[in-house]
Each structure stands twice: as C-alpha cells, then as structure tokens.
Amino acid sequence: MRSKWDNAEAAAISADPLALRVYTSRLLGSDPALVLHGGGNTSVKATAPTIFGEEEEVLFVKGSGWDLATIEAPGFAPVRLDALRRMAELADLSDSAMVTAQRAALTNPYAPNPSVEAILHAIIPFRFVDHSHADPVVALTNTPDGAAKVRELYGPHMLIVPYVMPGFILARTIYEMTRSMNWERLLGMILLNHGVFSFAHDAKESYERHIEIVTAAEDYIARFSMPAPDVSPTPEAPLQKLARLRRAVSRARGRAILASLDASAAVRAFSELPNAPELATRGLLTPDHVIRAKRIPLVVSASKPEEDVARYTAAYQDYFDRHTDGSLTQLDRAPRWALWPGQGSVTFGASPKETAVIDDIKRHTLRAIRWAEALGGWQTLGEKEIFEIEYWELEQAKLKKAGKPPAFEGKIALVTGGASGIGQACVEALTALGAVVAVLDMNPSVADQFDRQMALGIPCDITDDDALRAAVDSSVRRWGGLDIVICNAGIFPASQAIAEIDPDHWDRSIAVNLTSQQRLLRACAPYLNLGIDPAVVIIGSKNAPAPGPGAGAYSVAKAGLTQLARVAALEMAAAGVRVNVLHPNAVFDTAIWTPELLEKRAARYGLSVAEYKAQNLLGVEITAADVAALACTVAGPVFAKTTGAQIPIDGGNERVI
Ligand SMILES: [Zn+2]
User: Could you tell me the distance, in angstroms and rounded to a whole number, from the CA of residue 563 to the centre of ligand 1?
Assistant: First the structure.
C-alpha cells in the first residue's frame, strides 16, 4: 500500500490542523481496503477560542453519519477534551449515557454526534489519531495465534489490545492498559478482530505510519498467499431459482428486496471451494459488519430456496433466543447475502445503495478469508461478541428513528418504450417511488439515458423475440426478479381508411402494438409468477372502446391488446399477477404528436392547438406524467385487489362513458 500524501497539496493547508485532518482522513477513506462505508474514524486535537476570549482544548473527531472518503470540516464534531478525559476515568458508563455526555460536551450544539471512539481518541496523547479497519491487519488477527503473529511482525512497539466491545469499554480498557505506560515508545495499536490505530503530533507522520503498518501486514500475507484457483466457465445461472430465492428472502424480511447475482471470477472461485459453505459461515471480518451484512450468509443448497430461507430464519431465531436478555427488539431474520456454490453469490438489499454496501463487505470478507486460510485458518469472533454489536443499545435506539421507505423500494419494474413520452414518464415515476427499472427501447441511446443505479437502459426491438427474452433475462440477472411490467411501447401509423391501408402499415401495427405484447408477457410470466405483489399495466388507448375513422391499423391492434390483457388477467390471477389496462387519450407530450400534426388536427376541427388539447368533458389537458402517475397507482397497493379492469384517462369522453 502506497502513501497518497502530496506535499504540494498539504503545503497549502499546513497552517490549519482541521484542514490537514480533513485531507488525510480523505486519503484513508479513499482506499476501501482501509475503510468501508462509514468505518474507521480520525481526530485532531487543537485549541479554539471561546466567546469569552479564553482558549480551550478541543478534540475534533469524526461525526457519526460522515464517511472518511468524503468528510468535510463540519463532519468533525468539536468536543471539549477535558470532559472526554474525565469520562475515561469513570469506572462505568453506559454507551447511551456516553453519547449524551459527549453531546453535552460539544462546543457547537449543531455538530453531528461525536464518534463512539471519541474518549479513546482523547486519551491518546498525540494531536493526530487515525483509526481504520484495514483488511490485511484484521485478517492477520482473525487467525489462530493472531496476537502472536502481530507481535512477531511489529515487535514490542505495537500495543496489542484483545477484542472488547467498541465504545466506552474499549476506551476504558486502553486507559487501564496505558496508565503507567510511556506512549512515546509506541508506533501504534492493533485491536484484535477490529482494526488499527496510528498517532503522531504531525498529520503526515500519523497517516504514513498507518500505511506502513498496513503494508507490513500485506507483505506478511503475500509471503503465504496462494494463487487464486482456476474458475470453470461461467455457468448459465438458473434465473427462476434466483427469483424464488428473492421472493423467499423478501417474505422473510417483510418487504420487497433486490437480489443481485455476483458471478465475478473471484467470487465464483470462492464458491467452488469444497469447504466454501463452512468457511463463509464462520463469521465476520470485523464485528461492525453485522449491522449491514448479518453475522453469516445463507447457503443456497440443492433443495428449494424456500427451505433454505426457512432454515436460515430458524437458525437466526435460535441465535437471538440464545443471547437476548428479554428486553431487546428483535431485528428481521432475513439474510443479507447468500453463498451459491458453483454460481457465486447473491446480495439482498432494499435498494441499489444497500446492495452495493453489502456487496463490498462480502467481497472484502471473501478476500480476507483466503488470506487467513493461507495463514493457518480463518478464525473469527464468537457469536456472542457479534450479537452484542448487532443488539448494541446504540443500534437499538436507531430503530425507533427509522422512517418509512418509499412505496416501491426493493421492487423491480420493466417498461417498454421507455426512452420518451409515457414510457419515460413511467420510468421517472417508478424510480421516484424507489423501484429499479429495466427500460427497453428501440432507440439505442436508451443505454446512456439512465443512471444505471436505479434504471438500466436496454436497447431492444420488442418485435425481435430473442432480443426481448435476453432483455428480460438480463434484468432478472441484475436485480433478481420482476414485479411490475408496463407494456407501453407502441406505434401510431399514418391515418388511412381501411380501403387504403398499406399492408406494411397494417402488419407493422399488429406486430408492434399487439403481437410483441403477447411475446413480452410470455417472457415475463415465469418471473412475474414469482414476483412481489406482481402487476402488469397495459397502456391501451381510447381507440379501443371508441375508435375513430382512419385509425384502423392502430385501433384494431389496441382492441386486440385489450382482449389480450383480459385473457391474461384470467390466466395469471392464480399466481397473484394483476393485469389492468389504461386507456389514455390525447396525450400530446409524446413523440407521436409532432407540432405539425397537432396544428393539422386542430385546424381540421377549426380549433386552436390549446383548445384541441383540452377537448374533453373536463376540459383538461392530459400529460404523460398524468398517465405515469395512474400507472404507478394501478401497479401499487391501492389496486391490490383489482384485475382485468380498463381505466380511461382521457378527461372524460362521451363515447367511452
Ligand atoms: Zn473501529
């Protein structure tokens, strides 16, 4: 590991200790092998003037909710050093009382909560203190005789601290260990099964010492590490099994979740190890990972996914019952990731963001397991220590603050014709409600149009059966299933009387507006059947119930589509899939309605464009966003008990009514 310190950058801020603290904190945070998603903490001691003109000693320590990679000066909570030092002398203090006392000692009441390690930072008699959960160091301690290995590697100038709970107990333990010790002789501290501390009066020295400690662990591991095993060619993942697994985990968690398959070479190689299930379920890399990833993953077996999940939740219940004192609020029993022997792994997150965090933890853990195995065996903290973190009073307090998630968070949608018009409005409405969306469109630019985290653009001609299936499969592979399908793609052929319809126009309208919709339902049905409150919304047309002259090719296809939806509602009800039809009329902010066409139509009726747009009983203009909002409502819980319905959205039309 190399130091990222840049003399020129540091020189510009060298007079400001807090600016330097921000700088080296970000250097630490920029390396995921050191710091992962809010892990680690740093501080600097400085003096600050009070409003009374006195100077007081302040510890600027990482505030909770901030990430070292992106931290800024306001992310450091200023706490009176004297108060923290006195707290270290207390024989006993609960962590919630500690949090309250730390807040009370802030010099700025609007600052974030100081890190739970603030007292520990305060008693280290150096200005700069850097703490990380560096993978190589922690992996080294997660082995038999880990403490002996650390001693052998770092010599007598490293303080080795046996594992205790973070928070007050850790600060108090180190306070006792170091009371009669000369800190000057120490180069750092290794906290077994937890992480590493470095410190110095100088920002650069503290940071670079941290890098040296981690590099020494890396070099030590490299001496023992074996090359990664070969991976067999990527097997075709059984996507229906994945969708069943997602449904079972969603039910266990009491909400829809995403299930992201990871078949990357490193994860696949691990999953193919004969003892992978046993290794993966020995425990965690560092105990704080339990909050995001739970103590152990689920192992996918040859039996039904529902049975694997039932076994997992029963084992979780036993674990809770073994350790609870009866006063704790039990968390959900659902796994956060699964090892799938031969296939790789599956991560279960409520959102793409949560999925990415769990995925990172999993990848770092699997790598550390490989290292530790080369060093004599992967050995982790016992379940009691992990339970204490999972059910820490500070974590329990957070449960009460948890807000309600967006209505469609964890749900997976697919929209055809999503690059523009009603389709695009549907994608925006669905993602705003928290759903992830596969966006199919003829237009190849759809691939670049969406942010990829919440919406994945897939160029696809829906009349190409193979392309359609591949698009549906790639969506399932990415998120683990399918809950909402909005059949929106369609074309509006030029106006022609039946006697004059160009055969190509007729055939194309039937192919796009009708046949491809059946093919889409066929490709989606196996996954919808395994979805969470699955729903299909068909974008029909006012032309189905109230056709107009000259639109034969269009109206006939849309009428056929309506009939297709009615039959689908009958057939798919047994699996709980709802199929409803919207009949929009005169939605003018779509690609079909060019300004020229609007002018022409308005002129035909002797109206202005504005009058023409609002030509309905209610005298209102209907927008793509209006149709999208209705589509989301129909796909959501309000319509949970409705299927086979046809709902106009046309401002009121005498012929439809
Ligand atoms: Zn820590």
Answer: 61
Domain range list for the chain:
7-224, 239-401, 412-593+622-649
Map tokens 């055969």 to a residue: 503
DSSP string, 179-245: TTS-GGG--EEEETTTEEEEEESSHHHHHHHHHHHHHHHHHHHHHHPPPPPP-PPPP---HHHHHHH
- Measure 1 CA to ligand 1 centroid, in angstroms: 20
282 CB neighbour count, 10 Å cutoff: 16
Spacing, Cα 598 to ligand 1 middle (Å): 64
The per-residue pLDDT for range 75-119, each reduced to its tens digit, is 999 999 999 999 999 999 999 999 999 999 999 999 999 999 999
Please tell me the CATH code under which domain 239-401 is placed. 3.40.225.10
CA of 7 to the centre of ligand 1 (A): 28
Is 403's pLDDT higher than 90? no
Q: What is the structure's pLDDT at 36? A: 82
DSSP labels, 594-615: -HHHHHHHHHHTT--HHHHHT-
The residue assigned the tokens 């929106």 is 488
Q: If you measure from the C-alpha of residue 170 to the centroid of ligand 1, how many angstroms do you get, rounded to a whole number?
A: 10
Cα 195 to middle of ligand 1, angstroms: 6
502: left (phi over 0), alpha (psi -120 to 50) or beta: beta
Q: Strands, DSSP E only, in 237-284?
A: 258-262
Q: Do 239-401 and 7-224 have the same topology in CATH?
A: yes
How many helices (H) and strands (E) in the chain? Answer: 26, 18
Give the pLDDT confidence of 169-196 residue by residue, as tens digits: 999 999 999 998 999 999 999 999 999 9
What gap in Å lies between CA 320 and CA 614, rounded to an integer?
61
Kindly give the distance from the C-alpha atom of residue 166 to the centroid of ligand 1, in angstroms, as a whole number. Answer: 7
Q: Which amino acid, residue 405? A: P
CA of 181 to the centre of ligand 1 (A): 22
- Say which CATH architecture domain 412-593+622-649 belongs to: 3-Layer(aba) Sandwich (3.40)
CA 583 – ligand 1 centroid, Å: 57
CA of 299 to the centre of ligand 1 (A): 28
Could you tell me the distance, in angstroms and rounded to a whole number, from the CA of residue 287 to the centre of ligand 1?
9
**Is the model's pLDDT at 14 over the cut of 90?**
no
Q: What is the pTM of this model?
A: 0.92
Q: Summarize the confidence of residues 209-224 as an average pLDDT.
A: 95
For domain 7-224, is the CATH number 3.90.1750.20?
A: no
Residue 228 has pLDDT above 90, yes or no: no
Distance of CA 480 to the CA centre of its chain: 14
